[in-house]
Each structure stands twice: as structure tokens, then as C-alpha cells.
Amino acid sequence: MDLGIKGETALVVGASEGIGYETAKGLLEEGAEVLICSRSADKLRYAARHLEQACGRTVHWFAADVTRAEDVVRLKAWLENETGRLDILVSAVGGSRRAGFEELDDTAWLANYEFNVLGAVRVVRAALDFLKRSDAGGRIVILGAAGARMPYEHQVVSNVHKAGLIALVKTLGAEFQKYNIRVNSVSPGRTLTSLWTTRAEKLARERGISADDVMYEFSREIPMQRFGRPEEIAAMVVFLASHKTSYVTCQSILVDGGIARGLI
Ligand SMILES: NC(=O)c1ccc[n+]([C@@H]2O[C@H](COP(=O)([O-])OP(=O)(O)OC[C@H]3O[C@@H](n4cnc5c(N)ncnc54)[C@H](OP(=O)(O)O)[C@@H]3O)[C@@H](O)[C@H]2O)c1
Fold it and tell me: What ranges make up the beta strands (E) of 65-170?
């Protein structure tokens, strides 16, 4: 299937590893020019080299931390210089802190809000002028989480903030229609990235069992009985960023092996 994005320009934020990296790779494979961003210059350099080797095209990168407003202002200036136009924006930064309600003070709540919600808001703000210039109509895809649709115990901060992202996507999709920009979200379930391997190692230490045993226990709760692979999430992101979904906006699509089974 030709997704119709050959020659278009995409920015993927949070692309040095995990779902963002696989999204950048998927977009490159479809013929888009891809710019990548995350905090670590070393990780970006490494990711860009691997993407270039896999796809045979140059991948430019910029180091910015979305929890620092000034970094995202610098990202905007870099984009102006680098391309001046964007067709696709993917925001793949975020994560969950596994902690019960009683362990969380205001500082923890605000930090997670900035990481999961305000970071995405800042990135959209930085990219908006460039997306408005897209001849084909801009597309924004923001990574949410299945926990927003079926809140997990001990993940209250990300349950709440990822639910906020769904509201953000539905609001922006309506507001940006006047610019011919579609806005959607992909909500992954448990996915094999460093986010989960780090968590499994921590839980394994706390419980005196192996990380593999922790992963096995968590996978048993998933109808498909396994974690997702980052490229399985990225495939949906790329699809939503393509012209094959030209009548889809304001949506949050679950890619979660069936774990969030609510009727609405
Ligand atoms: N993995 C899962 O099970 C899962 C489940 C539900 C939802 N999700 C969501 O899916 C998205 C991607 O998750 P993932 O598992 O792929 O994460 P990941 O493997 O931890 O990768 C996160 C990426 O974001 C970058 N990043 C982290 N903090 C950043 C910041 N403050 N500013 C800029 N870049 C930053 C990281 O690179 P640097 O270190 O270079 O900054 C990395 O490239 C997130 O929104 C997450 O909440 C994941």
C-alpha cells in the first residue's frame, strides 16, 4: 500500500529510541524526509546513523528537552532554518511513574504533567506554523497510553495526564480543521521499550524475582498474552500520519493487544 507521504517532511520528537525511533524508521521507509529530536545528542547521533544506514537518506537531528520551554523555542528556530515546512508531527515523549496516590506530592504531579502533557503542547506550538504551510494538510500524532482508557492501579499520574492528552487531541483536531490539520493519538498498551525493561528490573529487585518473571506476570493480563513491539505501535502512528486516514481526526486509537476493553 502506498501511504502517499513520499517527499513529505516529518518531525518525530522522542525518536532516539523506542516507539519514536520505530516511527521515524517507518516514515523514512515510506519515503518521507524525517527530522528527529530528543534530549540526548549522543543517542540522537547514534539513532540518526542507524536510520541513515537502514534507509539510505540523511536524518537531521536536534537535541531538546520538552520539559524546558526554552529548548522548545530553540527547536522552533532550528526548524525554521532546517525546513520551514512540516507535513507531519509526531510527539512520542512521555511515560508513566509507577507509584500509589499516597507516594505522590505536588512536585511529582507537576513534573509528570510537564513530561506528558505540557511537553506535547509545547511541541505542537513550535510546529504549528510549519504544519499550516503543508500543501497536503498537516497531520499531528501524539502518543497517549491505554491507561487513559482503562486506568491501571499505581499509575495514577499517567492515567490522569494521558487522559488529558485525549482531550487535547479532540480539542485540537476541531480547532485546527481550519488549517487543514488532522490531529490524532495512538494509545499503546504494554510495549517492549526501555520504559518497561527498566520498570521490570526495578520491580524484580523489590520482589526478589527475575525481570523475566515480572514481564511474564504482566503479559498474562494482556488478552494477546504478550507485550507489544515498538514497531507494532509505530505502524499505526505512520498510518494515521498518512493520507490513507484522510477522514480520521480527533481520535485516540488503541494498539494494546486488547488490554483496554471498555465499550466506550
Ligand atoms: N512502552 C510502553 O509500554 C508504553 C505504554 C503506554 C504508552 N507509552 C507511550 O508511548 C510513548 C513512547 O514511549 P516509549 O516506550 O517508546 O519510550 P522510551 O523508550 O522511554 O523512549 C522515549 C523517547 O523520548 C525521549 N525523551 C524522553 N524524555 C524526553 C524529554 N523530556 N524531552 C525530549 N525527549 C525525551 C527519549 O530520548 P532521550 O533520552 O534522548 O531524551 C526517547 O527517545 C510515550 O508517550 C509513552 O508514554 C509507552
Answer: 88-91, 139-143
Q: Which domain holds residue 208?
A: 192-227
Phi, psi of 187 (to 5 degrees): -110, 100
User: Total structural domains in the chain?
Assistant: 2
Share of the chain above pLDDT 90, in %: 96
* 184 touches 252 (CB < 8 A): yes
Q: What spacing in Å lies between the alpha carbon of 148 and ligand 1's midpoint?
A: 16
Number of H helices, E strands in the chain: 9, 7
pLDDT, mean of residues 247-257: 98
> pLDDT band at 193, cuts 50/70/90?
very high
In a domain, 1, yes or no: no
**162 C-alpha to center of ligand 1: Å?**
13
- Say whether 233 sits in a helix, a strand or coil: helix
Based on the fold, state whether residues 96 and 221 are members of the same structural domain: no
